[in-house]
Structure formats: structure tokens, C-alpha cells
Amino acid sequence: MGVILLSVLGFVLVMLTAITYYLRSVVKEFDIEDEAGINVENKKGSVLSSQTFVYTAIVLVSVAMAGALYLYVKGTPREAHLMEWLNIVIRLMHITFGIAWIGASFYFVFLENALNRTQNVREELAGNLWAVHGGGFYYLEKYKVAPKTIPRHLHWFKYEAYFTWLSGFCLLFVVYYFNASALLIDKNVLNITPFAGISIGVGSFIVAYIIYDLLCKSPLIKIKVLFALIGFAILVGFAYFYTHIFSARAAYIHFGAMIGSIMVANVFFVIIPAQKAMVKAAKEGVPVNPQLGKNALNRSLHNNYFTLPVLFVMISNHFPTTFGYENPWLILIIISLGTAGVKHYLNLREKGELAIWVLPVSIIILLAGAFISAPPKNPGACKTKIEFSEVNAIIQERCVSCHSSKPTDDVYKAPPNGVMYDTPDDIVRKKDLIMQRVVVTKTMPQNNKTNITEKERDIIRCWIDQGASVK
Ligand code: HEC
Fold first, then answer.
1. Ligand 1 centre and the CA of 446: distance in Å?
2. 382 C-alpha to center of ligand 1: Å?
3. Selection from 306, 309, 332 nearest residue 321 by Cα
């Protein structure tokens, strides 16, 4: 059944791909006529929209193929393998689109800040910039409002943002939502059903954008400091909310995904429509409403400040000392504030404004995060000598349901990260990681699914402190 479905979908995919080649050749013919001065705008427009249609169909068919493949391997040992490869492919896409988007965003903010606005600038220009890159010289000009005639070939920066969001949303499903009971929900935080968790997660993105959008449209936007303070307070609220609903790790990712969604919504609902309206007005020769450009610039500046906090969140999952802290929301907020501060400093510097204090203050904020999450200097004396048998009993009871060559856990069918504790040697070799995850950050057992006790964590600590001997 699965094989038949896959073959049919595969065939459709090949046909759709062939159609894209055909449509491309049609567009090329129109381009030639266009160059020759024949008006083909309408015809070309309809071909371009069929092209969009075909590309959408290709994406949908590919997703359906992944779904069919999933049904085919569901319940077999290959299910986890498929999920892992989906994870790799989508993550790579997400990173690539994200780099393209954030790279362009950084570049344009830099351009804006570094423009020469005074020397030899033509009346209609806001400024220009000479640059050398990749073995060539570049000369760029920014218009105050718009050029007199809009050039035919105008590059739009938007798909980077949309695809970053789409791939990120898919990744959220592959990593957190398909495995909601294991990764999204931590019963020690809040005992909710996977469905409730996923609905809260997705719903929170929409609510966040509505709040932010109202704030931007309120008169507050004119009072920058107040706007920033209220915005920050709302972010603290979201961080607190997420860490009291989801597992700490999932809470971090949701915080990042929430900000990322606001950033993409800014592009989709404000920046691109403003640019379209400006192009339209310029084409029709009517004056452009300068407020549109200002709104777009505001949103794009907010996006700029959001970038570093979001990038931190996206890598935070590798650092259990961050989400493993007893008040995970606090570290999240400290790092968001500190990294946004660093971004602020960089922006000021590019503009040539000297506010050097911003950098050390941001760094102190970040160091404060490292300081408060540090493990206690003196975790308490170990009075008795711990025998390996005691530790082994704990590990067998609390860890090997996941960390074994043949896990019995309901979710993990292969040892996570390849970590197994089947033999004494396996345990001793991993003693430093065990100390970090079980004693210092308390991020293992995952979501304390196997109910390890504080006393047992302490026994493990003392055994490692006493030299982790197996005799
Ligand atoms: C419910 C399943 C589960 C249980 C039970 C569990 N773990 Fe894990 N463990 C995981 C998963 C999933 C990962 C990979 C994700 C991560 O690093 O958080 C992991 C990762 C680790 C790592 C990090 C490996 C690396 O390469 O960084 C260590 C160390 C670890 N576990 C130790 C333990 C110890 C010790 C116990 C028992 C006290 C334990 N785990 C219990 C699921 C579990």
C-alpha cells in the first residue's frame, strides 16, 4: 500500500518538475518579446502565477511523500531513522534560509547606517556607498523615496524570510510535536495532553503577533524608550508563561519561534505590503505616503534587534546549563536582553555614534546569567564511601530504559545520542557528562521521566567526586 502510494506520488512529482521546465521556456519567450517592445505583461503574469501554482504543488506532493513514507515505516525500527533524516534535511534548509534572511537583514541595516549622506550626493538620493567584496568594486545608491521610473527588474527580499519560517515550523513539528509527550510536555511542569500543548504553542504565536502589532499601531511607538520597556515586559511574560507550560527545552524553542514568527509577520504584513504600495504609487506617478516607509523601517529595525536573541535560542538546546537552570525563564530573558544590547551597540557603532557604555553593560548582563546559573561552590560533604553497586543500581533503574543498546522506553527506540550504560565501563567513561546532566543541570533523566530522587543524584555526585571507581 505504502509503496504504491509512494510510486504514484513520485510519478506526479516528476511530471510537475517537467512542467516547471516547460513554463520556464515560455517565460523566456515572453522575455524576448518584452525586450522587443511588445506588451506581454498580462500573458506573462498568468504564466508566472501558474508557475507559483506548480511550485506549491511540488512542495505539497513532497510533503505528502514524506507522510506516505512515514506511514510505511511507522511502528518499525526505521521510524526513528526517518524522523532523524527529516530532521537533518529540514534543519539544513532552516539554517540555510535563515542565514540568507538574517544575512540580508544585517547587510541592509549596515548599509543604512554606513551610507555616505553628505559628500557628492545627488538631490534625489539619500546616500551612497562604495564597497569592495569578492574581488570586485560595488557602488550602491539609496533613493530618498523612489526613482522616477521603477526599473523592470527589481529584486525583492522576501522568500528568505518566508522559507525560514516555513522550514522552522516544520522542524517544530518533526522535533517537538510528533514527540510531544516526550519533548514538549514535562509532567513535572504541567500535565497537559499533547493536543493541548500543541494548540497552546501554535496559538501563542498568533496572540504574540496581535499584541505586538497593536503596540506598534498605538501612539507608544513614538516614545521609543517606553515602547522598548513595555515590549520587554511582554517578552518576560511570554518567557515565564512558556517555562510554566512546556519542558524547559521546548519553552526556549517556543520563545524563539514566537519572536521569529513576529519577525516574519513583520515582513509579510507590513514591510512587503508597504513596498508594494510604494512601487505602485511610483508607477502611477502619485506621491508616496512616507508613513508607509517609516512603518516598514520601524518593523525592520525591531527585527534587527530580535535577531541575536533568536539565534541564541536556536542554539540553546545544546546547552543544558541554560535551560537546566531552576528558573529557566530568567536565563532566557537575561540572554535576550544582553544579546539585544550587543546588537544595539553594533548598530550605534555603524552609525558612528559613540555610546561605548552599552557594550560593557550588555556583557555584564550576560555574565550575570552565567554567574547565577553556576553550580554551588560547595555542594556538601560526602561522608560515606559510595560503592559502584549502589550507583549501578540507580543507573539501571533511572537511565537504561533510554540509554541502552535496546531501550525499553516508549519513545526512544535507539540510545539517545548513542549514550548507553549497559556495562560499568560505559558508565565510567561518561562520568563527566553524567555529572553535568544529572547533578549540575538536572536535565537527565529527561523531564525526570524515571523519577530520580535528589538523594540518588547526590549519591552519583559523591561517587564521581570520590574518583568513580568500579571496585
Ligand atoms: C526518557 C529517556 C531518558 C532517560 C530515562 C534518560 N535519558 Fe539521558 N538522554 C535522553 C535524550 C533524549 C538525550 C539527548 C538529548 C539531550 O542531550 O538532552 C539524552 C542525553 C543524555 C546525555 C548527554 C549525551 C551527550 O552526548 O551530550 C547524558 C550524559 C545522559 N543523557 C545521561 C543520562 C543519565 C545518567 C540518565 C539516568 C540518570 C539518563 N540520561 C536518563 C533521554 C533519556
1. 6
2. 25
3. 332
d(Cα 248, Cα 246) in Å, to the nearest integer?
Answer: 6
Give the pLDDT confidence score for residue 125 in this predicted structure: 92
In tens, the pLDDT along 443-459 reads: 999 988 899 999 999 99
- Long-range pairs for 164-170: beta carbons < 8 A, 24 or more residues apart: 164/94, 164/97, 164/98, 164/100, 164/101, 164/260, 164/264, 165/260, 165/261, 165/264, 167/90, 167/93, 167/94, 167/97, 168/94, 168/98, 168/257, 168/260, 169/257, 170/90, 170/94
Backbone angles phi, psi at 119, to 5 degrees: -90, 120
Distance CA 370, CA 160 (A): 34
pTM of the model: 0.85
Give the residue-averaged pLDDT of 208-228: 95
- How far is the C-alpha of 419 from the C-alpha of 395, rounded, in Å? 12
Residue 359 has pLDDT above 80, yes or no: yes
The gap from C-alpha 33 to its chain's centroid, in whole angstroms, comes to: 43
Q: Are 201 and 254 in contact (CB under 8 A)?
A: yes
Q: Which of 293, 212, 294, 206 is nearest to 254 (CA)?
A: 206
Angstrom CA distances, 346 to 260, 349, 398, stand at: 21, 5, 47
Ligand 1 first shell, C-beta below 6 A: 395, 398-399, 401-403, 409, 412, 416-417, 419, 430, 433-434, 437-438, 444-446, 449-450, 452
pLDDT at 295 over 80: yes
- Beta bridge partners, 115, equal none
In which band, very low, low, confident or very high, does the pLDDT at 403 lie, cut at 50, 70 and 90? very high
Give residue 120's region: left, alpha or beta (phi > 0; psi -120 to 50): left
Q: Do strands 125-133 and 136-143 pair parallel, antiparallel, or not at all (unpaired)?
A: antiparallel
CA-closest candidate to residue 263, choices 213, 217, 202, 221: 213
- Predicted pLDDT at 349: 87
- State yes or no: pLDDT of 471 exceeds 80: no
Q: Give the separation between CA 281 and CA 269, rounded to whole angstroms.
A: 18
Closest CA to 394 of 452, 323, 340, 349: 452
Instruction: Residue 190: name the closest of 127, 241, 137, 253 by CA.
Output: 241
**Interval 414-431: pLDDT, tens:** 888 889 999 999 999 999
